[in-house]
Design goal:
By secondary structure, the chain is mainly alpha-helical. 64% of the residues lie in helices and 0% in strands. The protein has four helices and no strands. It is extended and about 50 Å long.
């Protein structure tokens, strides 16, 4: 019986060591929508069965932000100089 408890302790310890440490979300961001925008968004959530709206907002916003950062990266030469 003691062997089983020792095994379970080791197993739990391994699970905890592989967990990703997350930073707490402490900064609140809010925005307003008009009626049509809100209905469209709620329809989208229902259609695609999105339960976690906060996660969806973060993923959607940051996918745009990261894409913009990749397009606007600093270069040594202007775009015209690189083409010519």
């Amino acid at each position: 019986m003691a062997f089983i408890f020792a095994f379970m302790k080791k197993r739990r310890a391994r699970k905890k060591s592989t967990a990703v440490t997350r930073q707490p979300r402490i900064h609140r961001v809010s925005f307003m929508l008009n009626g049509d925008e809100y209905k469209a968004l709620m329809g989208h959530f229902l259609k695609y069965k999105i339960d976690n709206r906060s996660k969806w907002y973060r993923e959607t916003i940051f996918s745009h932000v990261i894409r913009s950062m990749e397009e606007d990266y600093p270069t040594l030469f202007d775009e015209n100089e690189m083409r010519g």
